[in-house]
Amino acid sequence: MTLDELLNQGWSDHADKTEAVAGRLEEGADLVVDDGGAARFLGLANHAIGDHLHARARAAALCERVVKQLGAAAGSGTYVQLAVARRLAGDDAGADAAQAATGDGDPAIGVRVGLLVAQGRLHAGEWTEAEGLYRAGILAADGLDEGHGAERAAAVVSNTVASELLELSRRTPAQDALMVDAAEVSARYWGRIGTWVNEERGDYLKSSVAHAVGDHPAARAHAERGLATIAAADGEEPVDEAFLHLARATACRDAGDAEAQAASLATARGLADAFEDDGLKAWFAEELAKAL
């Protein structure tokens, strides 16, 4: 097995077969031979072992092992993930040392670590700590010049924060506010570093979030903006388009616009008829039920 195969299979299985993925990572650590591979490997280890198994010390131990194995080949990407592992395991001094080991003094390094730690706290259900770290990280990221090295972390972690909050069956007013803010921040940062696909997916998230907080006009506007982005790009994203039409249908239903709801439902169903993946079909069926 190659490192790519190990990581791809790990991301595919990590939610449902977490212990098996953890074991494969521990057995396959010798496949890591460079900084790029190490950063990806440690990222999965932190998420699967630390976030899903809630075994922070175990995740940190595996990260330590890989960094030691790389020696001088370890670079900033690896040390960022090591710092995250150590911070989440309660080793603040070790985390500081890992950040310092990047050697370039780039302030974006600390921002990346802080945002990834916030994400880890979120996965552990530590909402108060996660929100504080997240908001501090975004404030710091916004204070850096455009093009800084923490933009991707800001985009990805913000998307995760908004999406995780969206999945909660009950939210506090503070969590609603955080969800709305995170969706906006994610779209803003993906707008800097992403493509039109990231843009329309950002509008899908913002539409879902707006619906969740009862802002139905905004939910419709975001869904229609996402659909317009796909049309303007002359691209092929039938899955995204189907779900955007479902989001639009839901917003139209809530606004009492039955004609527009029916039109979007018909378009969404037509696109979904071509879906072949069973998991995708099941997800569409769930979302369709919400739009009826």
How many alpha or pi helices? 15
Task: Tell me the domain tally.
Answer: 3
The helicity comes to: over 70%
Radius of gyration: 20 Å
Beta-strand percent range: under 5%
Outline type: globular
Largest sheet: none
CATH topology of the largest domain: Serine Threonine Protein Phosphatase 5, Tetratricopeptide repeat
The number of distinct β-strands equals: 0
The CATH architecture of the largest domain can be given as Alpha Horseshoe
What structural class is derived from the secondary structure elements? mainly alpha
Distance between the termini: 46 Å
Q: Output mean pLDDT.
A: 94
Please describe what this structure looks like.
The protein is globular and about 65 Å long. The chain has 3 domains: 1-105, Serine Threonine Protein Phosphatase 5, Tetratricopeptide repeat, CATH 1.25.40; 109-194; 216-292, no CATH class. It contains 15 helices and no strands. Helix 5 (76-88) runs antiparallel to helix 6, helix 11 (196-212) packs antiparallel against helix 12 (216-233) and helix 11 (196-212) packs parallel to helix 13. Helices cover 78% and strands 0% of the residues. It is mainly alpha-helical. The longest helix has 21 residues, at 173-193.
